[in-house]
User: Fold this.
Amino acid sequence: MKIRFDSRKELNPTQEQGLSVLYAPSKRAAFRVRWYLILLLVASPLIWLGGKLVYGILMIDAPAQLRLPILEVRARDAGRVEQLFVRAGDQVRVDQPLANLDNPEWRSRMAQLSAVPANTTRLSNAKLGGRERQLLRTRIARSEDRVRVLEDLVIRGAVSRGEVLAAQSELDSFKADLLAFERREQLANQPLNDEREKAERTAEQKWLQTRLAALPVKAAQSGRVAEVLVNPGENVGAGTLLMRIEQLEEPLLWIYLEPLNISYAGIGQPLRVRMPDGKWLTARVVQAVDSAGRTPTVLRGPFAASEMGLQVAAKFDQPLPPRWRIDQLPLNVRFPTDWDQMITDSRELIQELGDFIAMAKPETNTVPGDK
Assistant:
């Protein structure tokens, strides 16, 4: 696009509405600069896009996320948080108490089992059994007397034989009840049942003691308490997350590399990490790529070629400053450009374009008879 400055002000730069002005030549330059600024403003999106493409070809950048080794502390059984011994930011060591949990229902059950004497059941059963036996024998004696009276009345012709049979049936029923009662008493008085009940109570007490002893929570590894998620007096269930502990190991840097740059994912590959304050730290790839995952939305750029990326693990060459030990901290990494590989790829691309143009070029028609 060619700009022509042929306006009235260009033809008469020293005239302004018929009057001669001394500063008109300077306005001529400003007029020209204004046009160039307008052109620059219109072309700026294209310039930015072209620069972005060139930068993406020359520099291999990738989003990354800092992952700290986190230990999750969970409740083993249901209970109530009685006391917390640590807060967020505290340093803990192995087997240090973290929280004290208790289960009031289990303790109430233990108190009930401890309050039951060993011979209470037997004594109470014997006392009640004596009363029931005496009652059954009294009924049997009365039924026998009634049968004898009715038999005398039958001889005198005062009652029928059916009434005697009904009284004898009632007597047989009372005798059967007494026999069943004595059989139950015999089974209940066996020492085996008492020993079995005692063994069951002892086993239940031991089970409750073991579960209560396992409720207090201790640190399995040394580290720093990153977060406490419960409060004293809160009821928790089995498997409830109580707190998170950052281990003292060096953090891993998970890089989401585009699949076409897989050549940069070898073990020992050096790279640089741009920290939030603008400083660059060196790191190296420590694991071979064995999986691909979806790049987190917060790390995905507006012109990302793919939502999926190779998950590359790297570690810093020097210990990470404590202020940057932040789990899931978003970062950006840059791999050194392999100029030899880039030149080779460019030559191959140029050769492929040349072959394509040669194949697309129409053949020259030959006239019959020409040699």
Residues 109-211 form one domain. Helices lie at 8-11, 24-58, 104-115, 120-156, 161-188, 191-213, 339-360.
